[in-house]
Write a structure and sequence with these properties.
Shape: globular
Mean pLDDT: 86
Strand content: 25-35%
Number of strands: 8
CATH architecture: 3-Layer(aba) Sandwich
Order of helices and strands: EHEHHHEEEHEHEE
CATH superfamily: Gcn5-related N-acetyltransferase (GNAT)
Radius of gyration: 17 Å
Bound molecules: coenzyme A
Strand order of the largest sheet: 1-2-3-4-5
Low-confidence stretches: 1-5, 10-32
Oligomer: single chain
Structural class: alpha+beta
Length: 192
């Protein structure tokens, strides 16, 4: 488990070497200047469900058909119960800013990264990068020798940029719809 908070400056003035800035400089920034990564709690399940549903229906929609995203993220997938249950058999990290969850990622005991989604209003702010680094750190603590996942067409460039290699492209069937994704892996995980 992550025992300390990872504080990530989202204000560009603090992106590099945040810890070296004076308290005065930090005090002058808007209140939402920081996000942090922490393990999810069951009370996060509601926001996690909404992020899953809306990210697929807006961000992934660019790369998949309407029928495919509806199969992948049916209305019921936003409901918190299933997400609370899932937390019992995996380690879920969330990125939070001022009480708002910006994204989440799931690490299963095998090293499989399951769900990994960033809020549609907070794409390309470094949220995914920080979540993935937290998962890799956790994998290091667990001495996992391999991380692997099935990346969507949308997420493939992100995981490639993060050092994951493509094992193969594949078609999966979800609720009767065929979807393309990519089996990817990092071996060994980049543990800092
Ligand atoms: C994939 C995803 C998680 C990335 O999260 P993010 O917070 O937007 O990514 P980051 O801002 O941390 O990006 C880190 C780096 O990855 C690369 N990257 C991210 N998105 C990219 C894109 N669409 N195209 C090319 N490179 C991309 C870039 O190198 C980026 O660094 P830069 O912004 O400094 O150039 C997010 O786009 C997402 O939620 N996608 C939809 C859900 C999904 O498909 N999840 C995966 C299911 S397997």
């Amino acid at each position: 488990m992550i025992s300390t908070l990872v504080i990530i400056p989202t204000d560009p003035r603090l992106r590099l070497g945040a810890q070296r800035h004076s308290v005065d400089a930090i005090g002058a920034l808007p209140q939402n200047a920081f996000m942090h990564i922490r393990p999810a709690t069951t009370t996060d399940a509601e926001q996690i469900g909404r992020i899953y549903f809306h990210t697929i229906r807006t961000v992934n929609q660019k790369d998949y058909t309407q029928a495919q995203v509806e199969a992948w993220a049916p209305e019921a997938s936003a409901s918190p119960e299933g997400w609370r249950l899932k937390q019992q058999n995996r380690w879920t990290a969330v990125a939070e800013e001022n009480g708002v969850i910006l994204g989440f990622g799931e690490l299963e005991p095998t090293g499989h990264i399951d769900c990994f989604y960033v809020h549609h209003d907070h794409q390309r702010r470094g949220v995914g990068r920080q979540l993935l680094l937290a998962i890799e750190e956790e994998a290091g603590r667990r001495e996992l020798s391999r991380l692997f996942l099935e990346a969507s067409i949308t997420a493939h460039p992100f995981f490639t940029a993060m050092g994951y290699s493509t094992v193969r492209q594949q078609q999966v069937t979800i609720r009767g719809q065929q979807l393309t994704n990519f089996v990817m892996e990092k071996n060994p995980p980049n543990v800092s």
